[in-house]
Here is the input.
Amino acid sequence: MAANSTTKAERLYNQCLKAYEKCRKGTGATCNGMPDPGMFNDEYNIPAELLFEELRKSNNKWDKERHIFSWRLLEWNYKKRQWDLSLFSEMRKKPLPQNEYTVYLELFYQCEDHKRRPFIKPIVVDEVQIEWCSKREYVAKYNEYRNQEQKRRDDSGSTYLAKVPNYKDVRCFPKMRSSAEKYIHPLKIIVKSTNNYSATILALGKLELVLNSLNVAQGAQKFSMRLFGGSGNKLGSKTIFVTTGHYIVCNENELETYTSDDRVTTVPKNKYEPSKQKNRLFRKILKSVINDSVVRERIEYVIRDLALAYDSTNAGLKTLSYWRCLEHATRSQNKNRPEKEIIGIFKYQFRNEHWKQMGDLVLNARNKYVHNGLYSGKEEYVDQYVNWAQKYAEQALYLLLRLYNNRKYWESEEDLDIFFDNYTKTPKFFEITNVIRNARKTKGNNF
Here is the structure.
C-alpha cells in the first residue's frame, strides 16, 4: 500500500480508537468479553468501514474476510494497540476462536412429491452445510428456547412481559391453514463462527445464495402476461422458495432466536417443478457459485438480481434488475462500459435479426425508465417489454455459465475484460490479428 494510503489507514484507525474509548463505559454490549460498539454506533462504524475499504485496495483477500476484519479491529481497539499495517494484515491469517453453531429455520415451498424435494441431500457452500430437518426436531428446539425464555421472564418479576408465543406465531409470514402446513419445510444450517449472531448472518447469507439459485432455475424462461387488464406496472412474481423469517441458533452453551425485519405478506403461488431440465440448471448454477473461479462473483450478482426481478411485481423494478444482470456480466475494471456496448455484446448471442432488434427495445425501455421514470409500451404492452428484458438478462447468466465451463482460459478479471472488449469484433478483426500473430513468429521479424 502506498505511503499516503498508509497514512490514511492510520488516521482512520485512530478515529476508530477514539470512538471506541467512548463506548467502553457505554452500551454494556460485549463480544467475547470486549465492549462492543454495536451496529448503530456511526462514530465508530463509519471510519471502520473506510478503513476496511483501504485494506481491500492493497489485498483483495479482505473481500471474503469482512468478519475477521471487524473482529481484529475490535480486539486491537480493546487492547489500545498502535496502528501497524503489516502486523494487522498478518492478523488476517490468524484463525478466530470459533464454535460450531446450528441455525434452524422454516422454508416455504409447494412440492407434492416429498421424494423429489430439495435439501434431502446436504448442500455445502464454503464449509456451511445446509440440510433437511424433521418437524419434530425443529419444534423441540423452539420449545427448548421457549421454556428457557419463559423462565427468564417469570424470574424477572415483571408484569409487562408477555408469554412466549408458540413457533407458528413468531413467523414473519401469513397465517397458514392446517392443510397448508405441509408446505412448511424445516431446515438446519451448520456453521462455524465466533458468536450466535454472526453464525446466523453467515448461515442466511449462504442459504440466500442457494435459494437464489433455486428460484432462478425454476423461473428461467417463464414469462408473464396479464389476462384481465389492471395496472400497467403490476406483474406476477415467479418466486417459489421463501423463509418464514424466524431463526433459532444454538450450540452447546447458547440458544437464541432472531426475527427478520422483512415480513412476507403474500404466500408464493408458484409450485416447485422438479423436472430434469430445471434440476440440471440448478446444479450448474450452484456449482458455479460454490467453486472458486474468476466468474463466480459475477454469477452471484446475476442470480441475485434475476431472483429480485422474478420476485418483484413492479415492472420498473423488474426492468432495472434485469438490466443490472447485463452490467454485472460485462463489467470492466478500467472503465464504465457504455449501455450501447453492453447491449451490443448480447445482440451477438444469436444471429436472428429480431433478436438484435429486441436488444434495441430493451435498451430504450431501460433508458426511458431510468431517465424519465416511464414504462415503454402502454398498459398491455408493458408485459412484452419486461419479458424481452428477461430474455436478455437470462442470456447474461447463460453466457457466464459457459465461461465457467471453460474457466481454465480465464485466470483474471483482465482476461474477462479482453474477452468482452473484443466480443463484438467482426471476423475480419480476428483474421487480421492472426496474421499479425503469425508474422511475429516468423524468423527475423522486426515487430
Q: What stands out?
A: The longest helix spans residues 196-219. Residues 30 and 390 are 47 Å apart (CA to CA). The radius of gyration is 26 Å. Confidence is low (pLDDT under 50) at residues 443-447.
